[in-house]
Amino acid sequence: MKRLPGWIVNGLLLFVGSLIGLWMAGHPPLMGLLRGESQKKAIANKPGDYPDLASDLQTVKRISRVLSHIAEQVTPAVVSIHCLKYFSADELGTISFQQENGDDATKGRFKFRRPRQYRQEGTGSGVIISPDGYILTNFHVINHAQEIEVTLADHRSYSARIVGADRLSEVAVIKIEAQNLPFARLGNSDSCRVGELVLAIGNPLDLSSTVTLGIISALGRRIDIIRDNFAIETFIQTDAAINPGNSGGALVNLRGEVIGINTAIATETGFDMGFGFAIPINLVKKISADLIRNGEVVRGYLGIAMQNIDELQARALGLSKPHGIFVDDVFKGSPASKADIRMMDVIIEVDGKAVNRANELQAYIARKTPGEEVHFALLRSGKRIERRVTLGMRQTEQRRSRRSRRIKKHFTDLGMKLKPLTEFDSIELGYPSTDGVLVEQVARFSPAERAGIQVDDIITRINDIRVDGPRQFREALRRYKPGDVVIIRVFRASGNYHYFVEIP
After folding, report:
1. How far apart are CA 437 and CA 431, in angstroms?
2. CA distance 358 to 347
3. Of 342, 324, 193, nearest to 254 (Cα)?
4. Residue range(s) defining the domain that contains residue 360
5. What is the pLDDT of residues 204-258, one digit of tens each?
6. Could you tell me if 374 and 388 are in contact, meaning their C-beta atoms sit under 8 angstroms apart?
7. Separation of first and last alpha carbons in the chain
8. Reduced to 3 states, what is the DSSP secondary structure of residue 26?
9. Domain C-terminal end among 336, 361, 393
10. Is 49 a member of any domain?
11. Residue 31 predicted with pLDDT over 50
12. Which whole-number Å values give the CA distances from 484 to 96, 475, 500, in the listed order?
């Protein structure tokens, strides 16, 4: 191995030494130690030595007291939620328990019997928002739950019922029968700033009343955890530790106000890696109010398809930099169409506020109610124009879920409820035809659900057989016998997907 020339080694040593010297110059206590002074003298807190040290320590102590006070005030309003879901053997499918390498002659009394019922348990958190027992949590915490038990911070337990749940935003409200409960103050998530200190309070890993500290890392995050074209994702990102069981808990600012409902983590291990996400409380307020009043959410409807603008698109549109939201499509007869918003317009402001992300606009509209007027500033062919849109109404997810709960547990049509595809359906779903059949509902644990088929999918073919309606779908299925696997082609979100389904 060749040695470096001496002049190179000396130069590197000189350079490194200079860097260390500059760094040490900014740390007087260390410089004092190097000069042989005592550690006590080097870090002494005398007037003139470190004039800011005492005040800095007092500031840290004051912040610590504030954090402790917030935890003491908010923790009693954060509850633990324990859910039970019971599944029949038929719902879970056939499960065979056999001894390895055994046969009928040797199994005898040692064979296993299949349980008639299976139980799934889940835990999460919630935030009390009224003294009479209304509690905010996440949709996924209570989804399909048949028994819900709420445990308060003082260890009292109550049975809870579901008031309403909204899959598109991941917000749910449950209720316990109690009075004079501690409840949290809800803040203003629109005033949140990146870098702001926050506390996450919840019950991770069955560790009740856990408080963690972090900052707001980002705002308006979309992480695609809600699988729906109308999903509302504009999360607050935080590095306050969030783990399984924190879902539905509180994200709290230094005023002791809840500014978000903790919902998800981005992780490769299943546990906290510094990427937690909370639903902004301003969105939660609107949705929870609808759920408490009506049991469902009534959303404003604009009626456009949109996408973010990057550098390439900005150049094509003649923009000086990437900004605004590109209008991909305007649905026929929609409020946007009636207000003369057009394809290829660029939305730059909504109610006087600049917008640059499609999910931000979607969340903003979701906070509005049908009949409200929204003011848009647009760029069309490089010129600024303004439009006022009176929002409409679209069918809510709650109505769909209510109908699905009335469906009996059988798997006719592979567990799907189908309906003829209308021109409006094609426009709303971006499908360039009316050939096909629309999936209106998918039964829980059905072959269709297990394969991955979803509500609002448009089925166009079974194997090589074209499907134009529910009747044609059933006729095509009759060609196959139980155990056959068919390939079902669906259109979803402007693309074709193929699902492999075994005929039961």
Report:
1. 11
2. 10
3. 193
4. 300-393
5. 887 888 999 999 998 878 776 666 666 677 789 998 888 888 889 999 999 999 9
6. yes
7. 70
8. coil
9. 393
10. no
11. no
12. 21, 15, 10
Backbone φ and ψ of 120, nearest 5°: -115, 135
pLDDT tens-digit series, residues 120-174: 778 899 999 999 999 999 998 988 888 899 999 999 989 999 999 988 888 999 9
**What letter represents residue 350's amino acid?**
V
- Hey, what are 338's tokens? 């009636």
DSSP one-letter code for 119: E
Per the document, the length of the chain is 504
Give how far Cα 441 sits from Cα of 121, 158, 229, 463, Å.
26, 33, 16, 22
Tell me how far apart the alpha carbons of residues 145 and 153 are, in angstroms, rounded to a whole number: 22
Task: State the pLDDT confidence band at 490, using cuts at 50, 70 and 90.
Answer: very high
**CATH assignment at residue 358:** 2.30.42.10
Question: What residue type is assigned to position 430 of the chain?
Answer: G
User: From the CB of residue 292, how many other CB atoms can be counted at a distance below 10 Å?
Assistant: 15
Do the Cβ atoms of 48 and 113 come closer than 8 Å? Answer: no
Contacts of 382 (CB under 8 A, 6+ apart): 318
pTM, 2 dp: 0.58
Task: State how far the Cα of 104 lies from the Cα of 41, in Å rounded to an integer.
Answer: 86
